[in-house]
Amino acid sequence: MIPYAKVNKGFHYILVVINVFSKFVWAQPVKRDYVRISKHREAFTKGYTPNWSNEIFRIRKVNYTYPTTYLLEDQTGQEIRGVFYNEELQKTNYYDIYLVEKILRKKRDMIFVKWLGLDNRFNSWINKNNVV
């Protein structure tokens, strides 16, 4: 028998919701999934700007209240204050691809970069060959 995680792209848990009164089925994010949060939008804001944050978070805990809420943590494991509703989260598969905002320093074959959408605490030295 094939393990559940191999069949479902490495997901260990999945919550499938079936609406009894209709034909629709949808999946909700569960613990250990990677998500982006929606940006706060005012009325009459421009619609061609991105609606989701660049920073990627991991779901730390699922509160099965009505409606369901989620506690998040960033990539260093620090808990994000507040709870988020399902509508404020977007599941992402690309949790290991980041964009370089600015090159801060250069040393031989290493460069010190600032990542787009992340704080200064995430700045790091990377090899020049890793940048496209």
UniProtKB/TrEMBL annotation:
SUPFAM superfamilies with a match to the protein in the record: Chromo domain-like
Residues covered by the Chromo domain: 98-132
PROSITE patterns with a match to the protein in the record: CHROMO_2 (PS50013)
One GO cellular component term noted in the UniProt record for this chain: chromosome
Source species: Aromia moschata
InterPro entries attached to this UniProt entry: Chromo-like_dom_sf, Chromo/chromo_shadow_dom
Protein's recorded name: Chromo domain-containing protein
